[in-house]
Design goal:
- By secondary structure, the protein is an alpha/beta fold.
- The protein is 47% helix and 14% strand.
- A five-stranded parallel beta sheet has the order 2-1-3-6-7, with helices on both faces. A five-stranded parallel beta sheet has the order 11-12-15-10-16.
């Protein structure tokens, strides 16, 4: 269907000649009276309006202001035989898309109309994007309306006001810390502290003093006593991220905190009572670790009173249409740029991608896209190469017999290594131990690389 172009000029000959010049590409309609133009605007969808500056007794600028007030999405191009810089500035201030002088250059007019239609399309997409953002559903700072996420929100709502321990299971980037913070912020402990400890990020030799504190002289360099994270969370919530990486030597002390609500700082004999709610999270298979003897069974049962399982982003792709606009708006505001929209191709790429790094990776991809976009439209070329490469060709799983992993031409060393690690990890069924063996590196080194490439943990 051709776009509708409405021509309002009080000289019938000019209107007729413009209609003739435009009718091949557009549904051009010409009128000489303001009342006739209003009747068409009220009845039909008009995409572009060519408006004469002088309309007999009517003032074209006044008509422009009235039309833009009633139809803000309409692109209006002003026409005049007496163009000045002052008049063009005034027209733009009143809402005109552009300004053109008579006699009209038809090629220039065609170009202006095409640009006006592009502008109108962009305006429409941004309006739809804002409407989508306003309708975003979720819980606390988490976004999603998929059945899997509604189930998570329901559990949080039911257990937020009790002190039972919660164990959050989920792959890196699925939002485990967001769930922990929501439990704290929405619950009765919200006025108390929320203290987070990443058990995988702190060296084993320092983790004990970090958690439980220490007394003066407990070790070389301990010039004074220091309160630990557990005591700092008194009256609030202690979040133990990557609990599966807690050394066996500290698991017994943490069990005591859960059972007796007390702790003893390193190098001290003083027993301190604490009132904390323990929320922990892991991306490991803790039941398997318990069976293997690398994680205490009694501690696992104490932590796992209320389990919450977070879905992968690839398992809730129906949430992408609300997650993508949210991150676009977030990064546009942070970078102080106009809210961009996605081209159809870029949108389809994002919907097709599997996001092995989950929400965190989606966030990073859209931050990159907003930063790279040269215009208000994010194109396919503005997306990271990993997204374009995976979407443009069928996925190739590693072939155990050939040992070949496909890496797209143009990938950086960092991207190539990431593809290799992700492929082998998937081939090994998620086993980091077997993946590390195939790669010839330690499990710790593998974890560090995953933290780098997946931006984990979240």
């Amino acid at each position: 269907m051709k776009p509708v172009v409405l021509i309002l000029d009080d000289e019938p000959a000019i209107g007729a000649s413009l209609r003739f010049a435009l009718e091949n590409e557009y549904n051009a309609r010409a009128v000489t009276a303001v009342e006739d133009a209003r009747a068409i605007l009220e009845k039909d969808q008009v995409h572009v309006m060519l408006l004469d500056w002088r309309l007999g007794e009517a003032d074209g600028l006044q008509v422009l202001a009235e039309v833009k007030a009633d139809y803000p999405q309409l692109s209006v191009i002003m026409m005049t035989a007496h163009g000045t810089i002052e008049s063009s500035v005034e027209a733009i201030k009143r809402g005109a898309y552009h300004y053109i002088t008579k006699p009209l250059d038809i090629d220039e007019l065609h170009l202006l109309i095409e640009k006006a239609l592009e502008h109108q399309s962009l305006y429409s997409k941004i309006r739809e994007l804002n409407e989508t953002i306003e309708k975003i559903q979720g819980y606390d700072q988490m976004i999603g309306d998929s059945p899997a996420m509604r189930n998570v929100f329901s559990i949080i709502e039911r257990v937020k006001d009790i002190d039972s321990s919660v164990l959050i299971f989920g792959e890196s980037g699925t939002g485990k810390e967001l769930v922990a913070r929501a439990l704290h912020r929405q619950g009765r402990r919200r006025s108390g502290p929320f203290v987070s400890v990443n058990c995988a990020a702190i060296p084993e030799a320092l983790l004990e003093s970090e958690l439980f504190g220490y007394a003066k002289g407990a070790f070389t360099g301990a010039a004074g006593s220091q309160e630990g994270k557990v005591a700092a969370a008194d009256g609030g919530t202690l979040f133990l991220d990557e609990i599966g990486d807690m050394p066996a030597s500290l698991q017994a002390k943490m069990l005591r905190v859960l059972q007796e609500k007390e702790l003893t700082p390193l190098g001290s004999t003083e027993v301190k009572k604490v009132n904390v709610r323990i929320i922990s999270a892991t991306n490991k298979n803790l039941p398997k670790m318990v069976a293997e003897g690398s994680f205490r069974e009694d501690l696992f049962f104490r932590l796992n009173v209320i389990p919450i399982e977070l879905p992968l982003l690839s398992e809730r792709k129906e949430d992408l249409p609300v997650l993508i606009p949210y991150f676009l708006k977030k990064y546009a505001e942070e970078m102080q740029r106009p809210l961009p929209v996605l081209s159809d191709t870029a949108w389809n790429r994002l919907l097709a991608y599997d996001y092995p790094g989950n929400i965190r990776q989606l966030s990073n991809i859209l931050e990159y896209a907003v930063a790279m976009a040269k215009e208000k439209v994010i194109t396919e070329e503005d997306l990271p190469i990993t997204v374009r490469a995976e979407s443009s060709s069928p996925k190739q799983a590693p072939d155990p017999s050939s040992g070949i992993i496909a890496v797209p031409v143009g990938a950086t060393m960092k991207e190539a290594e990431k593809i290799m690690i992700e492929s082998i990890l998937k081939h090994c069924g998620g086993s980091r131990k077997e993946t590390a063996r195939i790669l010839g590196i330690s499990e710790r080194s593998l974890r560090n690389k995953l933290q780098l490439y997946r931006e984990e943990p979240i």
